[in-house]
């Protein structure tokens, strides 16, 4: 926080910024929805278009136990335990364009007891905080995308009840019914013919051998299953879609695009230091992350549309959510970010200066 207020020419006091993140009455969920609405509008989505909500989690290592929610977590991507915070995160995607959406801290049961909060699983947090509240343009189709860790018939059923679809990965031991016979999905890779599938994701060509068929998952119902592998000797992987009309290629393409949430984590942290918080309060940390995501979105949309920063902020309607004083802090923050972007001579310098600026 000390660097935030010192970085702004004529900026407010450190106490003012602490008040903004800790005590001021503004709703980060409304900011997230406002940001999403503007993204949808600028992306030109309309009736029949697809919007993707990619869900994942991420970790922030911390020393000591002063920060709320810290604990021992197993980071599957690193293959080790870490001491720190765990966050459920999401990003919105239309075509090749994406923005970070929301981040919510996951609390273990002992932490919820200490903070007098109700314990929620990560799938419950994802549904209650990110999926159910999200408003999308009328007539568009929302697909929620996640990996096999998040698979839950309860979660998928709730998403379907909202009128949305799910594309996700399945574990190889998942039980399915094919022509009334129960099998593991891995058994399909041994008995069926694969065909070549090629498509482009994030500007890169992807080639797979794949097969697709409609199967039934006992606790869920009928889904479209895709088994794919890279080359004849590649290990098979299994994806499913609740939208039976999607093609094999579309399902693979949608799941490959799930990686956008990982890129959003990396870019939001490198450029805006969203993991570099030194606040200790859960709500303040989540607010800080949303402002980091908002700043990231403003810069990206200003760049892609050619509009001025102030124009993007005005058109986004943030002023309707934050009162004039709070909006002033946001505009000051964005203007400093603009100066950093304009005066940085390399991506490395930009990343360092952004991380330094957002170190709170």
TrEMBL record:
Superkingdom assignment: Archaea
Signal peptide residues on this chain, from the entry's feature table: none
Residue ranges of domain Transposase IS701-like DDE in the record: 11-177
Pfam families xref list: DDE_5
This protein's name: Transposase IS701-like DDE domain-containing protein
Provenance organism: candidate division MSBL1 archaeon SCGC-AAA261F19
């Amino acid at each position: 926080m000390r660097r935030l207020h010192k970085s702004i020419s004529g900026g407010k006091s450190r106490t003012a910024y602490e008040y903004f993140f800790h005590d001021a009455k503004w709703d980060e969920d409304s900011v997230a929805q406002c940001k999403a609405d503007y993204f949808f509008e600028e992306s030109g989505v309309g009736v029949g278009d697809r919007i993707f909500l990619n869900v994942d989690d991420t970790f922030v290592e911390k020393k000591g136990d002063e920060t709320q929610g810290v604990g021992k977590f197993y980071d599957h991507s690193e293959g080790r335990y870490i001491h720190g915070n765990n966050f459920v995160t999401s990003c919105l995607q239309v075509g090749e364009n994406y923005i970070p959406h929301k981040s919510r801290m996951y609390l273990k049961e002992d932490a919820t007891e200490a903070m007098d909060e109700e314990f929620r699983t990560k799938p419950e947090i994802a549904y209650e905080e990110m999926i159910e509240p999200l408003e999308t343009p009328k007539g568009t189709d929302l697909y929620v995308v996640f990996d096999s860790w998040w698979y839950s018939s309860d979660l998928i059923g709730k998403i379907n009840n909202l009128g949305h679809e799910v594309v996700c990965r399945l574990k190889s031991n998942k039980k399915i019914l094919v022509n009334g016979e129960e099998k593991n999905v891995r058994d399909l890779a041994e008995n069926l013919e694969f065909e070549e599938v090629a498509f482009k994701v994030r500007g890169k060509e992807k080639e797979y051998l794949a097969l697709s068929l409609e199967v039934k998952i006992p606790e869920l119902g009928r889904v479209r299953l895709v088994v794919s592998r890279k080359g004849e000797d590649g290990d098979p992987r299994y994806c499913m879609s609740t939208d039976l009309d999607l093609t094999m290629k579309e399902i693979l393409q949608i799941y490959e695009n799930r990686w956008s949430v990982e890129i959003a984590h990396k870019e939001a942290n490198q450029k805006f230091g969203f993991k570099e918080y030194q606040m200790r309060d859960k709500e303040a940390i989540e607010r800080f992350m949303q402002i980091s995501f908002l700043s990231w979105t403003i810069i990206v949309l200003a760049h892609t549309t050619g509009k001025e920063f102030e124009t993007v902020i005005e058109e986004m309607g943030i002023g309707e959510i934050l009162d004039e004083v709070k909006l002033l802090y946001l505009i000051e923050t964005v203007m400093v970010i603009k100066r950093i972007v304009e005066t940085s001579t390399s991506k490395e310098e930009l990343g360092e200066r952004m991380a330094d600026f957002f170190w709170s």
